[in-house]
Amino acid sequence: MDLAKILVMEKKTSIARDIRGNLKRLGHEVTAILQTEDECIREIFKNKPDIILIDIDLNEGKFGLEIAENFKKNFSIPVIYIISEFDMSYLLRLKKVEPYEFVLKPVNEKNLYSSVEISLYRDKMDKKLQESEWIYRTIFENTGNATIFIEEDTTISLANREFEKLSAYNRDDIEGKKSWTEFISRDDLDRMKDYHRLRRIDPSAAPRNYEFQFVDRYGDIKDIFMTADIIPGTKKSVASFMNISEQKRLESEILRISEQERHQIGIDLHDGLGPHLVGIKFLANLLKQKLEQKNMEEAKNADEISGLITDAIDHTRQMVKGLSPVDIDADGISFAIADLTRNVEKVYGIKCSFTQGGTLNIKNKFVAIHLFLITQEAVNNAVKHSNAKNIGAELIENDGAITLTVKDDGTGIENILDRREGMGINIMKYRARIIDASLYIGPNDTGGTRVTCTYRKE
Fold first, then answer.
1. Which one of 156, 233, 269, 280 is least enclosed by Cβ atoms within 10 Å?
2. Residues 454, 458: Cα–Cα separation, whole Å
3. Residues 51-60: pLDDT tens digits?
4. Where are the beta strands (DSSP E) in 89-245?
5. Which residues contact 153 (CB under 8 A, 6 or more apart)?
6. How many domains does the chain fold into?
7. HSE-up of 183 (CA within 13 Å, CB side)?
C-alpha cells in the first residue's frame, strides 16, 4: 500500500475527525482539515498533498464541486468526493468533473481505503500517460520533418509545426478539416489514394517510402520524399514529409550540365577527332598507293594501318552516337529512335518497331536528347524486365504537343516492380521534369506496360 499525504475539506467537525482517524489507521498522513478554498490553496503550496478529500456540499459561496474542479485544473491533484446520498442529480454533477473516486457518508475505513488506493493508482497511471504523451508530442514536433496523422477517411487529425510551414496553413485550419488529398498533385493523386486504400487492407501491400509532388496553400509545387505506415491496431496512419525540392533542383541542374558536357564531347569528337582520323586515313591510303607503285612489301603495312584507322573512325562514330545521339548529323530524333529499335531487334531478337506520325518539328536540341533518352530507358526496361515479345515506339506531333509512347506486351509494370519504383523510372521522371513534360508509366490497355511522355511546345 502506498502511503499518502491527504488534505481534507469537510464542513462537519465530527465527520472530519472520523475521516482523520480512519486515514491514520490506514497509515496515511492528514496534512490539515479545512473548510475554505483560500486555506486549502495555502496548504497545497505548503505541504503539497497527494490527494484531496472534499465534501461535495461544502458551501462557502461555491459548491465543493467547483472548488475541486479548480484544484484539479490548477494543481493536478486527484480529488475524492464525499457525498451524503447517491441519486441521479449527484451522478450527473460528478460526471462533469470526472472524479477519481467518491465515498458515501458515513465514511467507513473499508470504503476509504479502496477509494484512496484507487485514486493513488489512477494518479500514478495518469502521470505516466501524461509523461508518455509529452515525450511523443516532443518527438512529433521535433522530428525535423513535416508529420501528420491520417484517419481512414483521409482527414488529417494531427499536424506538427513543420507541416504548417510546408503547407502554409495554420494547424487550426488543418486538423479535423483538411484531407491529405488536397495537398497532392493531380499526377500523383490516384497512385497515392491506391496506396492509402491498400495500406488499410494489408500494411505491406503499399510502399512505405515514395516520392510525389506536394501542392501548398498558394499552389506552389514541392518535391517530397514521404514515409508512411499504419498505426498498429488502427485504421489510422502516420506520414512524414521531407522536402527534397532543392535536392531535385540540384539533381536536375547536374543532369542538365552533364548532358551538355556529353553533347559537347560528342561534337568535339565529331568535328575534331573524326575529320582528323579521316585525314590520316587518306594519307595512309596515299602512302599505300605509292608503295604499291614501287612494288614494296611495306604497302601491306600501310594497308593494315589504313584498316586500323577505319576501325578507329567507326569506333569514334559509335562514341558520338552514345554521347550525343540526336541531331549531330542532322538525322534528328526520329532517325535516332529508329536506329535504337533496329539495334534492339538485331541484338536481342525481340521485335522492336518505330512509328512516326506526321512531320516532327523539334527545334530544341536539349528536349530532343531527353526524349530520346526516355525512349532508350523505356525500351531497355522492356528488354530487361518484361519478357516482352513485341516492343513499339511511337512519336507524333499534334496541336503543338509532341507525344512519345513506348509499349510492350510483357508481364506488366505491377509484376515487374512489385509496386516500387526503380532507378530507371526515377531517371525518366527526372528527364521529363527537366523539359517540363508530363510522364505516365503504367499498364497498357492490351497488357504489358506503357510509357507516355508528352511535351507541349511553347
1. 233
2. 13
3. 888 887 765 4
4. 101-104, 146-150, 156-159, 209-215, 221-230, 237-243
5. 179
6. 4
7. 26
